[in-house]
């Protein structure tokens, strides 16, 4: 692209600008004048505006074909290049434009109905869960009650025939010491040391 007056190419240091009156793309050198509220104006438009009334509109106007295109919707312009999906979307957009707008009161009513429906669903689900839990508890209780009670067979450990103090062979059973077994020496010395010489003892015979 280049300037329409001096043909200098546009670039980083030579930016593309436009005349506010004719609309041509020009460089900064070719826009030396500034016309009131319009902006920068080229050299050819400046004398024309001086001859006319300063309040006149710009002489540049877009072509009639361009204005006609703007009046038509973009869908009809690019209809030939659109795919089937694009056409379907365009039809949906047209239908949405035709649909009447919903008022704020209607939106609030719909939201209230949705909230009521959700609250009812939540209560129903809560009751269902509570019933299911109660049913599970009842089933477990019935199962436990139907099972036979297991009798605890407590097997008593056999009595060891040894003295409870020195682990030697037992000779006496002290009746006052809860049936503990003692040898002859521990029976005499132990009860004497404990001050319990009055305990009754009987001879112990080892069962075969």
From TrEMBL:
<feature type="compositionally biased region" description="Polar residues">
    <location>
        <begin position="119"/>
        <end position="129"/>
    </location>
</feature>
<dbReference type="InterPro" id="IPR011011">
    <property type="entry name" value="Znf_FYVE_PHD"/>
</dbReference>
<dbReference type="InterPro" id="IPR013083">
    <property type="entry name" value="Znf_RING/FYVE/PHD"/>
</dbReference>
<dbReference type="GO" id="GO:0044878">
    <property type="term" value="P:mitotic cytokinesis checkpoint signaling"/>
</dbReference>
<dbReference type="GO" id="GO:0032266">
    <property type="term" value="F:phosphatidylinositol-3-phosphate binding"/>
</dbReference>
<protein>
    <recommendedName>
        <fullName>FYVE-type domain-containing protein</fullName>
    </recommendedName>
</protein>
<dbReference type="GO" id="GO:0032154">
    <property type="term" value="C:cleavage furrow"/>
</dbReference>
<dbReference type="GO" id="GO:0030496">
    <property type="term" value="C:midbody"/>
</dbReference>
<feature type="region of interest" description="Disordered">
    <location>
        <begin position="114"/>
        <end position="136"/>
    </location>
</feature>
<dbReference type="Pfam" id="PF22586">
    <property type="entry name" value="ANCHR-like_BBOX"/>
</dbReference>
<dbReference type="GO" id="GO:0005813">
    <property type="term" value="C:centrosome"/>
</dbReference>
<dbReference type="GO" id="GO:0009838">
    <property type="term" value="P:abscission"/>
</dbReference>
């Amino acid at each position: 692209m280049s300037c329409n007056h001096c043909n200098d190419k546009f670039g980083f240091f030579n930016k593309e600008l436009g005349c506010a009156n004719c609309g041509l793309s020009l460089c900064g050198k070719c826009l030396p004048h500034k016309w009131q509220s319009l902006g920068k104006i080229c050299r050819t438009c400046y004398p024309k505006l001086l001859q006319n009334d300063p309040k006149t509109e710009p002489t540049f106007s877009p072509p009639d074909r361009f204005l006609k295109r703007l009046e038509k919707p973009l869908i009809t312009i690019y209809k030939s290049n659109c795919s089937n999906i694009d056409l379907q979307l365009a039809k949906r957009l047209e239908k949405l434009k035709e649909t009447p707008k919903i008022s704020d009161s209607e939106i609030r009513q719909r939201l209230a109905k949705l909230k009521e429906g959700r609250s009812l669903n939540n209560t129903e689900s809560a009751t269902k869960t509570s019933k299911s839990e109660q049913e599970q508890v009842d089933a477990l209780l019935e199962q436990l009650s139907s099972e036979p009670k297991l009798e605890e067979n407590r097997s008593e450990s056999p009595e060891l025939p040894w003295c409870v103090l020195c682990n030697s062979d037992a000779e006496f059973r002290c009746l006052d010491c809860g049936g503990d077994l003692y040898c002859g020496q521990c029976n005499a010395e132990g009860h004497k040391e404990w001050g319990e010489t009055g305990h009754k003892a009987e001879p112990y015979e080892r069962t075969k």
